[in-house]
Amino acid sequence: MKDQNEPWFYINDLEGFVDNSRQLVFKFFGQSNEIADDSLTASLASLGDLDQEELDKTISHEEATVIIKNRAKIQINRKSKQKRYCINDEILQLIIEDLNSRMVSNILTKLVVDGVIESAFDTEKNDFIFWVKEEDDQNSKPETD
Fold first, then answer.
1. Per-residue pLDDT tens for 6-48?
2. I need a labelling partner for 91 at 20 to 30 A (CA). Which of 42, 71, 99, 137 fits?
């Protein structure tokens, strides 16, 4: 890909890139934006079995692959018709933000389904709001007309 302003990187191993991106977002979820280089390198070591199971429940490999493929630029070889995915720093940042947002969304959805929190759509804010379910709410019956 040609762009004089910033370098482009080719993803040679899409599956590995997806796995490492998921692990990176999972390991640094909820931490500050300031991450030391040595902690970043250490974070790319594989997850333990329990963490990997939690990661798979939180954001699946398939979800992450779709997000990454939608953001990356695609080059197609004219002769072989093979696809090659390309990213730059800006696209990588967007990928990480998208993975993080999807993870947050999936976590909130699971908490709502499990009955831990409740949600509603606020038309004034044009967004969903969430709150922790009160102990009394489980025993109370909804009002009916």
1. 899 999 999 999 999 999 999 888 665 555 555 555 555 667 8
2. 42
Secondary element (H or E) of residue 96: helix 89-113
Answer yes or no: pTM beyond 0.85.
no
Classify residue 34 by its DSSP letter.
Answer: -
CB atoms within 10 A of CB 72: 23
Q: How far apart are CA 89 and CA 133, in angstroms?
A: 41
Tokens (6 digits) for 83: 């696809």
- Strand arrangement of the beta sheet that strand 9-11 belongs to: 9-11, 83-87, 73-76
Give the contacts of 36 (CB within 8 A, at least 6 positions apart): none
Phi-psi region of 109 (alpha: psi -120 to 50; beta: other; left: phi over 0): alpha
d(CA 76, CA 113): 42
Q: How crowded is residue 19: how many other Cβ atoms within 10 Å of its Cβ? A: 19
